[in-house]
Amino acid sequence: MNTKKTILEPAKEVTVIAEPDVCVIGAGPAGFGAAIAAARNGASTLLIERYGFIGGNLTIAMVNPMFTFHDIKGRQVIRGIAGELVDRLVQVTGSLGHVTDLTFDNASMTPFDPEAMKVLLLDMVEESGAQLLLHSAFADAMTSNGRIESIIIESKSGRQAICPKMVIDCSADADVVARAGAPFVKGREEDGLMQPVTLFFRIGDIDFDAMRRWMKANRPLLKGQPTDEEIDSQKALALLGLNTIMEDAIARGELHAQAAPRVLLYQLPREGQVAVNCTRLQGIDGTNVEDLTRAEIITRRQAQQVHRILQKHVGGFENSYLLDTGAQVGVRETRHIVGDYTMTEQDVLNSRHFEDGIACGTFAIDIHPPDGRKQIFTGSGKAVYEIPYRSLLPQGMDNVLVAGRCISASHAAFGSARVMATAMGIGQGAGTAAALALKKGWTTREVDTKALRRLLIEQGQYLLNENIDDTGNPELVLDRDEDDTTVAGHHNPFNKEG
Fold this sequence. Notes:
This protein is an alpha/beta fold. It has helices at 29-40, 80-91, 114-128, 175-179, 208-217, 228-233, 243-251, 289-313, 345-349, 411-417, 420-440, 449-458, and strands spanning 15-18, 22-25, 45-48, 131-133, 137-144, 147-155, 158-162, 166-169, 184-186, 201-204, 238-241, 263-267, 274-277, 321-325, 335-337, 357-361, 366-367, 375-377, 385-388, 400-402, 490-491.
């Protein structure tokens, strides 16, 4: 029997440093949205983040661009705080705003400069009145009768306690819910396997005129075989394909065998820069520190390998350099809470409206393979669905909400709801609900969701079956038929027509 040696940690008093109305754990897209919404709605709010800056996958893992704010008719269905963020990024030249996507996988994409993002996120949190505590890692949750009484954090200042009235778990991994003893699941229903991790990286000093010429001359290597007009008209170039080049590199030993068998990259607002989504490693549990250590080592080596391949094979990359990699590997999937309602793939595919819907999503069901090579992708923007408030409620807890990729959803439904734009919308729903509950003296389950929906709409959120202007942007209408996805390594087992 394999047992591990243990020690007994002595009990000690922990100083209480704050007693806010709302404590938000994790300052990624969901936590940012939740903290601002709670503070704007009158709740004293404390946002806890373990890094020295906020943004989560937006900045720490350097995931770029944001997906996706629009459906295939060009209608913006994610607005509110997320939409405000993009508008303000454009004002500070940190983004071109919403642009068409040359990979034709997404109704729109929103590339941004991560350094501009870091500062703007801080500005918006401070303007809201929310308090921020950086360099502070969540350590534990003390519970009593289904309520979290205190949150324990660790930092350079030692072990400290926070005693909030409401907690919003935006850790992405449901860390708070797990430590509180509420139920959760991991990964795919049949075997628990989770989507692989990816380390994003940026390449600098690219000649985009040369890249355009190369794309026109090598159309068969690109998904959709874009025309000269399509390539020239893009405000921000995007490239998806090169599967034969990548597979050959793997066969020659020039690329790690688990790297993605295609290249996906996006032009960024700063001169000569792209973000690259190509590294990949399966079999990683993002809640296991040994797995995360292995992932950081392997994917950073993959990033260098991918860059060398692009330099060798793609025009415009000859004099480029690896600019930087994410501060940590991007983790797609770990824990999902067991909530009062578990979203399913049919909710996503059938554009389901919920009476307690608090945010919308329109991204594809996008499942990077937990095993094997084939990636599921249903096509973005075909369906617009709502995330129900009940999916934010962990069973057995009365003063806790979750937001972001740890909501209660099946493996397939989560494949859509996990992206950053949707996470911000869910965060706004959670933060608004927490503040409303405190104002009315409700527990999380007593929240009047009709009143919550009205308040969210007043504050810019887009929801279904409401009298909201949904005029589409004609520049963002996807008018291309489904094309061959072989070079992208995609398939759609759901066969959803759209």
